Amino acid sequence: MSTDDKNLLPAFHSGEVMLQEKAGLAERMAELGTRVVRRFMPEQHREFFPLLPYLIVGALDQAQQPWATILSGPHGFVDSPDPTSLRIAALPFPNDPLAGQMQPGAPIGLLGFQAHTRRRNRANGHIVAANRAGFALQVTESFGNCPKYIQAREAKPTAIGPEGSSVHTASLDSEMHALVANADTFFIASAHPDAGQKPGYGVDVSHRGGKPGFVKIETFEDGRNRLLVPDFVGNFFFNTFGNIVLNPKVGLLFIDHAGHRLLHLAGKAELILDGPEVDAYAGAQRLLTITIDRAILRNNALPLDWSTAEISPFLEQTGQW
Prior knowledge:
CATH architecture: Roll
CATH topology: Pnp Oxidase, Chain A
Shape: globular
Largest sheet: 8 strands, antiparallel
Number of helices: 6
């Protein structure tokens, strides 16, 4: 997305607009975007972020590969000193693929995600300061997201000791496969090809939810994996998909809600907009596929305990596959 104080720039970039046009909604979304995509955080967003025990982050590594991760901290570890600033008193752990990447100038996408209330707010921008305790960013885009497809589960801080070992592979091993196959939630980071290079273009991180097992795994003869994910009706912003149209690199995050483990995946995404593959998924409007290039399973990586999930009632409209 891109916008400015006087809305001299369009609210959506060319990839987003292309998909909105295919959906027959480009004119409507252009008008809506100027009203809901802000270059500052409204008070309700500024008050929301400090309530969170964790924050979903999307950023780029040195090779411009997007990754998604999660940061956590004590009450108030995120705060907003003014309507265009956020300060985060946390950094990625050493085994995180984004360790060392929270540096001034880096584009970043944040998702404030309160699963037990099904509330989420987005804040995108770039890092303006960093030290050993955390980093600060200037917010250039702020907007809310609808609560559809969020599984209601509450997170509470817990003590877990030092970060454990990590497993790096090019494809899913048995533990990774099980984590993905049983998931009801994941997060995806994507980036405009000019992220960090031109003003107004950056990184997004967003939520995807479904019934447990909604992510299907294919394994090719050479051992590589491809994920198939149904996309249900949403807000038609197409932030993630618009980026993918222009830049297929994505990073996924799966959380092991029972075991303090995090699974990071990097790969190349493709959209299937119609046809028999889409029709096979009841309730889906299109399909997202991700061919995996790298997988990192991190043990003892998240000091949070989670309650049992309450599946979103909106998922009653989708099928079993």
